[in-house]
Every structure is written in C-alpha cells, then in structure tokens.
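Batch manifest, entry 17 of 40.
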Amino acid sequence: MNCELISVGTEILLGDILNTNAQYLAKELAALGIGVLRQTTVGDNEGRLLDALDSAFGRCDTVILTGGLGPTPDDLTKETCAEYFGKKLLLDKESLEKIEAYFSARSIVPMPESNKKQALLPEDSLKLPNDNGTAPGCVMEKDGKRIIILPGPPKEMVPMFRDYVKPYLKKFTHSVILSHSIRTFGIGESYMSEQVADLLEGENPTLAPYAKSGEALLRITASAADEKEAEEKIGPVAEEIKRRLGNYIYGIDTPNIETAVFELLKSKGLTVAFAESCTGGLCAKRLTDIPGASDVIHCGVVSYSDEIKHRVLGVKKETLEQFTAVSGETAQEMARGVRLLSGADFGVSLTGYAGPGNEEEVGTIFIAVDGEKKTRLQKLVTCHRGENCRDYNRHVAASNAFNLLRLVISEND
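Output type: structure tokens
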C-alpha cells in the first residue's frame, strides 16, 4: 500500500499552527510498512481540495486527510471527499447523540445547531468514533481506493488513528518497517559517520546519520515480515555501533539527553541541583518537564547577579573580582555552592555569554559538575553568534551540562 497525506486548514498555510499531524502519521505509517509518497497542505477551499485529491489518487491508492471536520461553513473536508467519491451525506444518530451528550456534560444546552453537521457521514462509510471530541472520522472506499478522514486537533487525531485506523490498515500490509535511533553526544555527525562508514552501506537494515542541535544520531531501519524478525536484523548492527561509539552513546530511542540523565539519576538513587546564570533556569526546566523529576532534582538557583553568586552560592568575592563571573573558577564555586546549599549529590552550574552582544565573547560558556569526590569543568565555545544566537546557545549549553553530568556519574561507577 502507498499513501499520501493531506493536511487541511488555512491556519497551517499561514503558519499559525505547527503541523505535527503529518509527522506523527508519517512515522506510524512507516512502522506499518506503508509508503508515504507525498505530504500536501491545502487551505479551506473546496476546489483546491478536489484538485489535491485528484492529484494524490494519480499516485497512490490511499489518502489520509486531517482537519476540516469542525462545525463552521469553512470546515468542508468531509463534504468535499464525499463529493469526490460521489457519496451522499447521511445523519448518523449515534454520532449526534454523542455530540449532544458532549455539550450537555459541559452544561452547554442547547447544543449549537451548527454542530449537527459533524454527525453527517458519507453513505456506506466506516465510522471512526471520536472519544476525545465531537467530530467522528470516517473511511470511504471506492474502486480499490480509500479516503481516511481524521480530525485536526492532535489530541483527537492521535487516539483515533491509534485505536481505529491502525487496526484497519494492518489488514492491507504484509510487512513491518522498524527503526531504532541511537543517540550520541559530543562526537559530531561527520566523525560519528566515519566510525560506522562501512555499516552505512547496508541495505536491510539501513543506517542513516542525522545531526541535531549539539548532538547526532544514527537511525537503524529494517524491513521484515514481523517485528521479531526486524529486531533480529537490527540487533547485530546496533551492538556493533555500541562497541565502536562507546560512551558517546547516551541512549537508544531515548527522546533527549535530559531524559537519559533523569533515568540514570533515578536508577542510582542520586540527586542534582542547578546553579544557572546564562541559561536562566533552562536545565531545571527541561528536567522538571519529565514526570517524576521530583525524585532526582533538589533545587535550581538562577544566579544572574554577582551578589547572588556570592551571597547565595558562596562564590568568593576575590574569585569574581580576579576571574569575573564568566570563568571556570566561578563555575566551579557555583556548582559546589549549590550542592552544599541543597544537599544534592551533584551540583551543576553554567555561566557564560548567551548573546547577542560582544561578538568575541558570545557563545563562550563554562559548565561545572561538582560531586563529593571530584569537580569536572568544561569550556564550551559554540561559535554561534548574531541576533538569533541566544536560544541556540542556551539550549546547547544546557544539553552539554546534562551530558557532563552523565559522564561524571558514569565515571563514579
């Protein structure tokens, strides 16, 4: 089976919302062994949507659409698709009752008349219940082709696809495509690729390198009759990569470096505290975005001023005067100070120039990790300058702080 995705909504074309639906669906379809030939975004316009459908079916047998199932006149996905397949729209009483109950439960009585249009479904279609909103989706089939219509809000679309569309599609597929991402830090994409150059030539599984902000990953992908066979193909390649890249690898299918550190701290019963200057609490924020972070983090201190560095964290005035606030000496005393202040096992500090500003200094950041046995210091120079440098420098600095903490914990084993 080949498939195309059509995202419907003028707000997507205008850049008012980020289209995460296409990314989610592309990954899910790839895992099912379904090829996605093209992704298209169309505004709320009947003529252009009909053209997009006609173009898509010239290349594939299945089109999945998201968006345009709302109650307003410009929500016309379902109506346009029914017209394309020559099907009438009929009132589905079960869907209408569910929509009415949805509004009643929220004390919105009577239900707005316009919402009744959401209960209209194309004749002979397969209804896809919406357990998280008002608009049901549907599947239409005609002459070996099929249209799958899903709501636009991700909180409605994702569970509808997972619970109803995925089981439906599985009967059309005879293989799976399985991928694992090996995530690395501190090695760089080019050097990482050199270390596994011969493995990049494989056909099944395939290996592809990718660069991220401050890190790199290798994605291993295998095609097989089932997931077990795909895992068997991937296994030996993954083991060889781990042997070659060693401690540069911080996780497999781990979403980010802070999650890897969280899991490491939790598994060892360790805790951390942060003293942040240039990152303004970003390390603490990224760690506390993870559920259960209270088990591993004691506190975070945003110490922008020299006075707070001295009075709260215990950085010596002589250190600040002699070496300045942005120095390895200050970073080390900040890390030690926040560890002693909090009672955590490790103190992590960051101080530097995030920018924009003095071009010679921007991107210079000192990171320190202080534990009972040792203090580790890293000088980071991002070379990222200019008016848009601040977010990048802060993000990369925080990621490097997490990685340095990961390495220190590993060294203590």
